[in-house]
Design goal:
This protein has 183 residues and is α+β, with helices and mostly antiparallel strands. The protein has helices spanning 3-38, 45-48, 70-74, and strands spanning 83-89, 98-108, 115-126, 131-143, 146-151, 154-156, 160-168, 174-175, 179-181. Strands 3, 4, 7, 8 and 9 form a 5-stranded antiparallel β-sheet that branches. Strands 1, 2, 5 and 6 form a 4-stranded antiparallel β-sheet that branches.
Length: 183
């Protein structure tokens, strides 16, 4: 068997695969271009002869009713150096010991043209060690003058005393008031 006769089937199958890939790529690109140019309208309805229906989607913003207690602080903008913490159960099917925290704080950026980094730390009181121990943490950042930053950690079946710390690059950090989660 000559080397030329053993290479020919490989080249032929490779060329066939390349052609298949090219056709698939062109088909995908054509479908994508059709979706983009249609602006979200139904694609392919004209090809089947069916009627074209345009849907208009609207959104309405409903005002929140005035709330009392913990819920009232959820929509309030925190003062500089203040952290607000509200709690709710994570879902209607979870146990009453599963809590979602809604934590908010105001972060001021000393240099609005540069990124300011900040970090959240949820701490739990350890009666045995008589100290605060880190429970959850998260980090983020933004560019701009100031921003109300939010964090939504979940505490699952772990009652006790907690506090939240908000650390901003270049500062010692701010602590929330301590709060107790119970079942």
């Amino acid at each position: 068997m000559s080397p030329r006769s053993s290479v020919a089937p490989v080249v032929a199958s490779g060329t066939a695969n390349a052609v298949k890939l090219l056709v698939a790529t062109l088909a995908f690109a054509g479908a994508y271009a059709g979706v983009v140019t249609s602006g979200g309208a139904t694609v392919g309805a004209r090809e089947t002869g069916g009627p074209v229906q345009t849907l208009r989607l609207t959104a309405h913003v409903l005002p929140m009713p005035a709330a009392t207690g913990e819920r009232a602080t959820a929509g309030r903008v925190p003062e500089p150096g203040e952290i607000t913490v509200t709690t709710s159960t994570t879902s209607t099917t979870s146990s009453s010991c599963d809590k979602e925290l809604h934590v908010r704080g105001l972060v001021a950026n000393p240099d609005p043209a540069d990124t300011v980094l900040y970090g959240w730390r949820l701490q739990r009181w350890s009666p045995a060690g008589r100290t605060w121990k880190s429970y959850l943490a998260a980090r983020s950042g933004f560019i701009g003058e100031s921003k109300v930053v939010e964090w939504r950690p979940n505490v699952v079946r772990n009652p006790g005393w907690y506090r939240v710390k908000l650390s901003v690059t270049g500062t010692a950090g701010t602590y929330s008031d301590r709060f107790q989660l119970s079942c």
